Amino acid sequence: MKRALRIAFSILAGLGASADTKVKLPTSHADLARGQKLFEVHCALCHGPKGEGGRGPMLAQLKLRRAPDDDALLKVISDGIPGTEMPGADAMSDHEMRQTAAFVRSLGRVPVKPVPGDRDRGAALYRGKGGCTACHSIHGEGGIVGPDLTSIGASRSAQFLRQAVLEPQKSIPEGYLLITVVAKSGESVRGIHLNEDSFSIQLRDNAGAMHSFWKSDIERIDRQKGQTPMPSYQGKLSDAELTDLVNFLVSLRETK
Prior knowledge:
This protein has 256 residues and is an alpha+beta fold. It has 3 domains: 2-107, Cytochrome Bc1 Complex, Chain D, domain 2; 119-169 and 231-250, Cytochrome c-like domain (Cytochrome Bc1 Complex, Chain D, domain 2); 178-223, SH3 type barrels. Helices cover 33% and strands 14% of the residues. Strands 6-5-4-3-7 form a 5-stranded antiparallel β-sheet, with no helix packed on it. A two-stranded antiparallel ribbon has the order 1-2. β4 and β5 form a beta hairpin. α6 packs across α8 (239-250). It starts with a helix and ends in a 6-residue tail after the last helix. Residues 1-21 have low confidence and may be disordered.
């Protein structure tokens, strides 16, 4: 109800205004300080306390792909992004969202340090020694078992990606729950959970093959939270190789 009233007041306030009126974000030191506090509570867990990125994309940049202007930024904060891990800010008032947006914009004015490493060497490691193409794809080329990496650099920070390569079990992507289905016939299949309803369940094994079972034919389903088929590259890549690989992954910023 509160959100509906807020939207209604916003519409009424906009009556008579020109169609091209743009939102104005607060600029006072007090508003920016309040926006920082709100950001630390609601946003920093995913985007990093300084907008450096983490599970969520880096915000410390002049141009945000999903929020090219302040109106778009406020909409993202208010409504979230459907189909992603970005939720809407139902707990914030309109003014608090504007304060948060103002702080996010201020992050883009801070110089960003370049990611170390060599992109070309990283690309060679990705396709060669790392064996990443067996599970991951870029622009449709590669495997389908793991997440598509076509635009991974736009949604994950260098620090997050480095940790994901070294300790993949600590950053399992949403929608990649590992399960083992044991049928009454004795057949056992381990793979990524795809779909499930009251009568059936589907999963994809490490070779990319899909399996479907009627639940009436299943002995048990083991849901292995905190586990992943992705191996750790700790000790498999040198520090320099890891740096190059992360540089390449961060460079992948094109939309799918």
